[in-house]
Amino acid sequence: MPGKAVRMKIVFLLHNVYAIGGTVRTTLNLAAALVEHGGHEVEIVSMSRHRETPRFPVDPRIGLVPLVDTRADGADSGLPAFGEPARVFPAEEKRYKQYSLLHDQRVRAYLEERCDADVVIGTRPGINVYLAQWGPARALRIAQEHLRHDAHTKKLRKVLARHYRRLDAVVTMTEEDAAVYRSRMPLPGVRVLSVPNIVPPACVPPSDGTSKVIAAAGRLAPGKRYDLLLEAFAAVAAKEPDWELRIYGGGAQEERLRDLVTGLGLTGRARLMGAVSPIEPEFAKASIVVSASDAESFGMTLVEAMRCGVPVVSTDAPLGPGEIITDGRDGLLVPVGDSRALAEAMVTLIEDRTARTAMGAAALVSARRYDPEPIAARYGLLFTQLEATRRRRAWQRLRARAANWARRKARSARDLRTDGRGGTHHEGRGHSRGTTARPRTP
Questions:
Q1: CB count, 10 Å around CB of 23?
Q2: In 3-state terms, what secondary structure has residue 206?
Q3: pLDDT at 281 > cutoff 60
Q4: Which of 72, 108, 115, 377 counts the highest number of beta carbons within 10 A?
């Protein structure tokens, strides 16, 4: 029989627990699950604090530690270091301008002087650099990657490759992304694996599949391809005039998408509903949920729809949908960028109510993979495995460093020999040129 789980202190390093965002929500879900199902002590350290209380509810058993108060009337705003740019948080990170020298100082002081955790988990690339630099040696240091490897710039990936080798593990949201990290960012002694986000059960009754509503949700950003979705729905609307499309979310493309709705003649049929949270009550009013994205880091809205007993039609985008949806069983997958295939998949589910109902029921069952308890158990197993393999992984890192050192020395010696031969050859050519250039004696 397996031994009783060891109670640990787990610290999450989060950009801003007081803000709204997918990483905030998923971190709070995981933190609560580790308390409830793992029996661990959990603390969330927020790099910044811009308001008095968090916007999302926080389990009262979870400790909150804000490091820098960014409010205009806060005590930190008058400190000299608050006005100076960060020196350790990588400039290649897109949130760099939100970090200051004061952040560098406070994070280092916390990690080196105050942190008594058994496990420290960073939740974004720049924060993971902090963790690699200053994380306590006695603690397991884990980097979570909520964005795809390829969503980072080449410059940032180069910085991360240098720092991530000091960590114990890198956790991605999908196995496909973990494979990308393993192939493109070799990290000897660092475990690279995937653990999906927790998506709690919906707090509303599941859809009965009878409404003539198709829903979509997410940021109104180019990569979400709402233009493609509207184009596909225009074809659906011509064949199924009683159905409507509701798009939930806000973003920079809102005005462009409103113009597209008008241009396609979909006024009153396709509606931009604005941002709504929680989204599950709206999904439960729909019979189909659609995603037309070019790429996904995970696909949270897909699972949220499945939690509501709604089948999902999604592009088979890298990296999440193919790991979430079983094509033909609990949803349908179509090629990326193919509006015709997207329209045909929607029409298939519209015309076949029996299949639609069966897929919705299967989606409810399939979504249980994202329950809090099994995800917390996977993290608990990871902690145990990392602790048990500390020495072996340290040896792997040491061997890799020694091999790199040997390669650099060999390359340096080879370059030195090449330079020596080249120098002699160059001098010979110079002498020859000088001889050739000497005027002949008549």
A1: 18
A2: coil
A3: yes
A4: 115
- The single-letter code of the amino acid at 149 is H
- Enumerate residues 6+ apart whose C-beta is below 8 A from 409: none
What does the chain come to in residues? 442
Q: How far apart are CA 89 and CA 79, in angstroms?
A: 19
What's the rounded Cα separation, in Å, for the pair 44 and 54?
Answer: 12
**What is the tens place of the pLDDT at every residue in 234-258?**
999 999 999 999 999 999 999 999 9
Instruction: Please name which of 128, 140, 145, 227 lies closest in space to residue 192, comparing C-alpha atoms.
Output: 145
421: tokens are 């031969």
Which residue, 80, 16, 89, is CA-closest to 47? 16
- At residue 203, φ and ψ (nearest 5 deg) are -95, 20
Strand partners, 145: 172
| Helix runs in 11-124, H state only | 22-36, 101-109
- The two tokens of residue 370 are 């994202």
CA distance 111 to 137: 10
Are 257 and 230 in contact by the 8 Å Cβ rule? The answer is yes
Rounded to two decimals, what is the model's pTM? Answer: 0.85
CA 435 to chain CA centroid, Å, is 67
